[in-house]
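Dock flavin-adenine dinucleotide; give full complex structure.
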Amino acid sequence: MRILIVGGGYVGLYSALRLQRRLKAELKRGAAEIVVVSTDPYMTYQPFLPEAASGAISPRHVVVPLRRVLNRCRLIIGEATSIDHARRTATVSTLASEETGRTEQLTYDELVLAPGSVSRTLPIPGLADHGIGFKTVEEAIGLRNHVIEQMDIASSTRDPAIRDAALTFVFVGGGFAGVEALGELEDMARYAARYYHNVKPGDMRWILVEATDRILPEVGEEMGRYTVTELRRRNIDVRLETRLESCADRVAVLSDGARFPTRTVVWTAGVKPHPILAATDLPLNGRGRLKCTPQLTVDGVTHAWAAGDAAAVPDVTAEEPGRQTAPNAQHAVRQARLLGDNIAHALRGEPLETYAHKYVGSVASLGLHKGVAHVYGRKLKGYAAWFMHRTYHLSRVPTFNRKVRVMAEWTLAGLFKREIVSLGSLEHPRAEFELAAGGKPPGHPKGSS
Ligand SMILES: Cc1cc2nc3c(=O)[nH]c(=O)nc-3n(C[C@H](O)[C@H](O)[C@H](O)COP(=O)(O)OP(=O)(O)OC[C@H]3O[C@@H](n4cnc5c(N)ncnc54)[C@H](O)[C@@H]3O)c2cc1C
């Protein structure tokens, strides 16, 4: 009996943890095996990415090492490139595949498909070349380094065109990821400016572009309006009912006619299901998500299960019929646990449980000591919401080890000053040595200075 889990994010981690526990006896006597295929050896706690970008949490602490926590599972670092469920076979490309030119064919008895989502982009000129995503820890750290580097560029020139472009930061998309990332980074940059003799907070221009007439729909209309007021109070240019039309030649052109020369366009305008789903023989809905039942099986198929961002799970708590659960961590975690339980039930011939969870609301951080929340009908703003954000996510981040490390970092950050260093050279670790060895000078300041 082999259970194959594709994806090592929220659903992959939590369903594997549940199965490890539920099938302890079967795993011990070799009657069952859990194989997790994940592109990364870690699970990313995405709600902490904005704080990783601002430097409040170090990157290693927003990820959970899968090998350590899934110690009774077999972990394969690689990418499932297609799935033939009729033949119960997944094709997996591993790190070694690049060298051997061969992919692995993995057979299974039960499939859990949890590849999550990817950024939903539009064919906007220049976006593919200049846009920056905000879904992974690498992107969060890259963006932090990039923002500080722009401040360094602005500080090292008197050319107003270069300075203005470097100090203009455009964020597209007013959901969780965009608002929190902008709120945290603006706060960090404002703080960092005190260490620059010629960059003042007022020299920077932070712009949030949102196509609809509201931001942060997750916290409700009233709190969304408060967030707009709060961001504008901080001099952030919030443009509602506005779209990005182009960012070619490093100029952001908006649908309201505004043009901003900029070196930073962060794209957080929603997600779409992972493209791997189209490379399977499983049923998808019109939006490309896997059609699922409220018991988290793939609709009309046996031995296939799904949950999280990739799965269209009927919301049995909704008043209007036909609604599906939203792609967020609140559902992903709860669905993953139930999915693990249901697989164990199915293997033992027991009846399956139904997924029923009513969305309880959300908390969002808008920078240090600033936040907004609407949870269990209670609305909070400012410090109280920020504090709730921290305590809630501290209680949610997986493993005791990570909780202690994050807590320690927050405590130390309260005692010492914020880190404002950019480790941009991490992205070019061989630059120095290549130069020393007489190689081609790379296109990085270290190579050109
Ligand atoms: C910046 C940010 C902040 C957020 N904040 C919140 C929040 O505050 N509250 C909230 O409720 N939600 C939040 N979310 C949303 C939440 O993180 C997602 O809904 C949740 O991660 C979905 O879980 P998942 O398991 O479906 O996907 P993921 O957690 O994304 O996991 C999918 C995993 O599968 C891997 N994978 C993909 N394809 C393959 C393949 N072919 N083979 C092998 N592995 C593959 C991916 O690399 C990834 O590791 C946030 C998201 C972002 C980006």
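Observed: Residues 9 and 43 are 5 Å apart (CA to CA).
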